[in-house]
Amino acid sequence: MRGRLHDRRHGRRHRGADRAPGRPAHVIGTSLGARVTQELALARPDLLRSAVMMATAARPHPVQQAWSRSLMDLYDKGVEVPPSFYAAAAVVRNLSPATLADPIIARDWVQMYEFAGSSLSPGERAQLALSDYEPRVEAYRRISVRSLVIGFADDLVLPPRLSREVADAIPGARYAEVADCGHIGYLERPDEVNRLLVEFIGRG
After folding, report:
1. Helix (H, G, I), strand (E, B), or coil: what is residue 103?
2. Which of 12, 103, 149, 165 can bridge 33 by disulfide, Cβ–Cβ 3.0-4.6 Å?
3. 177-201 burial code (b ≥16 CB/10 A, e <16)
């Protein structure tokens, strides 16, 4: 992993794990990036001062697998989903009803997803395939890195019970749940998420 791993759609990234040799880093990941963080903490704890995982899981989720397989099937068949349909589906999947209760905000999110488009790159197609994996709960009991796991209360993609399961597996991990936000809760409730991050990292 060089510098950062980034998903253009949801801003999932990792920074600096190998940027400064000999200097462990605070590593933060969300969704797939959180799974990468968990595996990094397990395999190379010497690189991390602490780990934060948001909207994560230690086992595959059937609904997410079905969604990923459907998108991969469309990609493999050369079918491009209309941006308007993809945008509506993405908004319902990723955002909380609390956010969408405001029609102006809901419209803005739909327009943003429409602007991003619905076409997948080969890299994103490969990323979708990572929804199929073996459960890792028992493996994560060996993580020794100081950890914070954050679940988002209205997350339909990876429900917060899955994030809590990760926190329960990691010895000494702290769990926090943010209300009124979905899978991209760090964008819906940035102040609360940032408060949790600053508090956790500051105590390290």
Report:
1. helix
2. 12
3. bbebbbbbbbbbbeebbeebbeebe
In 87-181, beta strands by DSSP E: 147-152, 174-178
Cα distance from N-terminal residue to C-terminal residue, the chain:
24
- Residues designated catalytic: 31, 155, 183
This prediction has a pTM of 0.87
**pLDDT tens digits, 76-114:** 999 988 999 999 999 999 999 999 999 999 999 999 999
- The secondary element (H helix, E strand) that includes residue 49 is strand 48-54
* 3-state class percentages of the chain: helix first, strand second, coil last, to nearest 5: 50, 15, 40
CB contact at 8 A, 181 and 99: yes
